[in-house]
Amino acid sequence: MKYFILNKPFEVLTQFTDEAGRATLKDYVPVPNIYPVGRLDYDSEGLVLLTDDKQLQHRLSDPQFKVEKTYWVQVDGNPTDEALTKLRLGVQIKGTKTSPAKVRTLEEEPQVWERSKPIRFRKNIPTSWVEIKISQGMNRQVRRMTAAVGYPTLRLIRPAIGPLTLGDLQPGEYRELTLEEVAAIKGLAAKAQSPKGNTRSKSFGGAKGKRGGQSGFRKQIN
């Protein structure tokens, strides 16, 4: 079995082919017969897990198994306590209420790479970073959640899936999981429960990746 993680750059599709000629995973991970676990939006960045382990793919991709994913979200404005509470309790998205989320503001801006296209800044309106942890997989869920409480997403980075973290991987870099990480992610999948159950996770640091990167990425998940 093969297990890799990639730091997916901005404006790259989470698939290996595209008839329109847009950038895909094939441009960054020259490993045959592996597939992404779940998806990450074209305009989002961060951790994508790739494997040929079909059982693991199913467990980690299916929202019913409650595998937690972490997102760092740069939003337009400074969210109020009321807005953060709404995100934690769940918000309405197209007639469906999102499940409770773990949400906190980041006191310091994450030390992440510069995006290939700068975000849209507005004069006299500050931006801030929020960490959101969810286990659902609704289409563009995090962006829709922040918009629903009045704070549109400007930039979205996924630094972790369960116990896996990007570590020092730069945009476009990938690496094979360590034996310890494979054991951890398999253990998480084995413990994963339907919505009535709970999951627990711990963090692992990253190893040096392949392919050239940009500016430093050093901050780890708490």
Keywords:
Alpha-Beta Plaits, alpha+beta, single chain, about 220 residues, two-stranded antiparallel ribbon
Architecture (CATH level 2) name of the largest domain: 2-Layer Sandwich
Q: Ranges with pLDDT <50 over ≥5 residues?
A: 194-208, 212-222
For this structure, the CATH topology of the largest domain is Alpha-Beta Plaits
Q: Outline the biggest β-sheet.
A: 9 strands, mixed
Q: What is the count of DSSP helices, taking H or I runs of 4+ residues? A: 4
Helix content: 10-25%
SSE map:
Blueprint: E1 3-8, E2 35-36, E3 45-51, H1 54-61, E4 69-76, H2 81-89, E5 92-93, E6 96-97, E7 102-105, E8 127-134, H3 141-148, E9 153-161, E10 164-165, E11 174-176, H4 179-191
Parallel strand pairs: 3-9
Antiparallel strand pairs: 1-3, 1-11, 2-3, 4-8, 4-9, 5-6, 7-8, 9-10
Outline:
Keywords: Isomerase. The protein is of the alpha+beta class.
Could you characterize the architecture of this molecule?
The protein is α+β, with helices and mostly antiparallel strands and 222 residues long. The protein has 2 domains: 3-65 and 162-191, 2-Layer Sandwich (Alpha-Beta Plaits), CATH 3.30.70.580; 69-159, Alpha-Beta Plaits (2-Layer Sandwich), CATH 3.30.70.1560. 17% of the residues lie in helices and 24% in strands. The protein has 4 helices and 11 strands; from the N terminus they run E-E-E-H-E-H-E-E-E-E-H-E-E-E-H. The chain has helices spanning 54-61, 81-89, 141-148, 179-191, and strands at residues 3-8, 35-36, 45-51, 69-76, 92-93, 96-97, 102-105, 127-134, 153-161, 164-165, 174-176. The strands form 2 sheets. Strands 1, 2, 3, 4, 7, 8, 9, 10 and 11 form a 9-stranded mixed beta sheet that branches. A two-stranded antiparallel ribbon has the order 5-6. Strand 9 (153-161) and strand 10 form a beta hairpin. It is globular, with a radius of gyration of 17 Å.
